[in-house]
Amino acid sequence: MAGPGYELIGAEEAAEVMEVLNSGFLSRYGPADNPAFLAKVHHLEQEIAALQGAKYALALSGGGSAAIWVALVALGVGSGDEVIVPGFTYVASISSIVFTGATPILAEVDDTFDLDPADVEAKITPRTKAIVVVHMLGGPARMDELKAVADRHGIPILEDSAQAFGATYKGRGIGTIGTIGTYSFNEHKTITAGDGGMVITDDENLYERAFAIHDQGHAPSRLEAKYAPRPFLGLNFRMTELTGAVLLAQLRKMDYIVSRLRANKAIVKDMLMEVPDIGYRTLTDPDGDLATHLVVTLPTAEIASKVAAEVGSITLNQSGWHVYSKMDHVLQRRTPTGKGCPFNCTCTTHPRPEYFAGMLPQTDALLARSISIGIGIKDGNLAPFGLTLRDGEAEARACGRTFRDVVIRNLR
Prior knowledge:
Elements: H1 11-23, H2 40-52, E1 56-60, H3 63-74, E2 82-86, H4 91-98, E3 103-107, H5 117-122, E4 128-134, H6 143-153, E5 157-160, E6 168-169, E7 172-173, E8 180-184, E9 197-201, H7 204-214, H8 241-251, H9 254-271, E10 279-280, E11 293-297, H10 301-311, H11 328-331, H12 361-368, E12 370-374, H13 393-411
Parallel strand pairs: 2-3, 2-4, 4-5, 5-8
Antiparallel strand pairs: 1-9, 6-7, 8-9, 10-11, 11-12
Helix pairs in contact: 1-8, 2-8, 3-4, 3-7, 9-13, 10-13
């Protein structure tokens, strides 16, 4: 199942793509003095930076995974370092750390379903190089508390905002509150071009480093493929003009997407208000919630499991590669070569953490009694039961009614 933007792909995206094809320039680079070169990727970066309130945005191929890796490397994360990351996240948040050579340190989530600031502080060591704050299921994390922890220890925050593009926290765009942020544009996300990612920051040095990492070591060269100074070796994660064109069209639909998500979520939640003994995730900023998910907590894991089965959903502890305990390749520390850092590292002597199901009991207990109702996204790995973006008030009421009746029946 796809995310909100996917439901709206149509004539606008086709028109943008045809402009690129007719221009003859498919790469993000082209002649600055030729009006036929439309610089779609460049304009996408400018528009998202302005929308989110940041100075710099860098569009990438490779999706959110590439964006997290590029951001971590831009921060200087590498072998021998540790990076704190929640145990409830998509596996890419963890694998991106592994591919820098750094060691992922798994931390608990709290009732926001995002990082628990207290557990983060407890897991900081002299080797902690970054904290990856993941805004899961469209809901902003406790950024004030997490920033206070990070600032006390002089550690940068990377905001993994793959599931929260369009959310805000106290009036600020998610991804712009920490030191550096990332977005994903795959088919499950708020807007999509099938894939693609982005790094966003106010730090000019970090932006220049990220740009060089994504473009074979070149310093920023906004339009033309000039051989700019090369501070170090990089790779190629350049976004194409075709991807940029689709995302520009999708970006212009953001207001509609967010307003529709929030309206449908309010309807479903209203249908559940009369249900006793039901709870909801804590929203750190209700006005900034993206509203792609309505996360419900039930009194016990047993009740939650029965409700999920009856409505055709899952409890969140069964969310595939979104829960550390289901990531067999992480638990078994499997990498492509089985050599080198972080799991077979000879450059440092400090002990390596063990990963095992049950190592995050607070997270495990919370997820076992929780279900997400998809609002604008039906995802078999997170929220099989719910709505699509095209569903209206009648469908939202029916969704809420069905869930309400099943919960009441199982609470008796």
